[in-house]
Design brief:
168 residues, 3 helices, mainly alpha, single chain
């Protein structure tokens, strides 16, 4: 009776690990979706200002609208990567649960369920691997977006900062 219990340990540990990864990714997903909504609100505010702006200010508001739209698209791309990571991590949990169930069934049908349990375990590990690749991709892309946003904010700040010697 020890063997099935010992065989259940790896899937259970992986289920716990995937659960922790999912919690972190769900929190990140929620934050990113909130950031996308914030960009949309900022875009609408800038667009309203653009519609009523003086001719000399229109170029600035048009640039703001373009930048906000670009940022929103980037954030939505991040949300897509995180969603994919979550789907694969949840699939890994499902396959690990299936592997655990099949390990239990192995007591009754040793030949059939043993192969199925190993297959479910390997597929679950593969799903976890793919999910982590998506997490890696999201981390890489998110840093690029932050750098881009920082550069744009510096450019905007320079537009509003008077040149030296031009102040009264």
């Amino acid at each position: 009776m020890d063997a099935p219990i010992q065989q259940l340990v790896p899937p259970v540990v992986i289920i716990s690990a995937c659960g922790l990864l999912c919690m972190g990714q769900f929190a990140r997903y929620t934050a990113i979706v909130g950031r996308a909504r914030q960009f949309h609100r900022e875009f609408l505010a800038a667009y309203r200002q653009l519609r009523h702006a003086a001719p000399e200010d229109r170029a600035l508001y048009e640039a703001m609208c373009r930048e906000l739209e670009q940022q929103a698209q980037g954030v939505l791309r991040l949300a897509g990567l995180i969603r994919s990571a979550l789907l694969y991590l949840v699939a890994a949990v499902i396959f690990m649960i299936l592997a655990s169930l099949l390990i239990g069934v192995e007591l009754v049908w040793p030949r059939l369920s043993g192969i199925a349990a190993i297959t479910a375990f390997v597929v679950g590990l593969f799903c976890m691997l793919v999910g982590m690749v998506y997490v890696f991709a999201e981390v890489r892309v998110s840093l690029r977006l932050v750098h881009h946003e920082h550069d744009e904010l510096q450019t905007r700040a320079e537009l509003f900062t008077p040149a030296r010697g031009s102040e009264p």
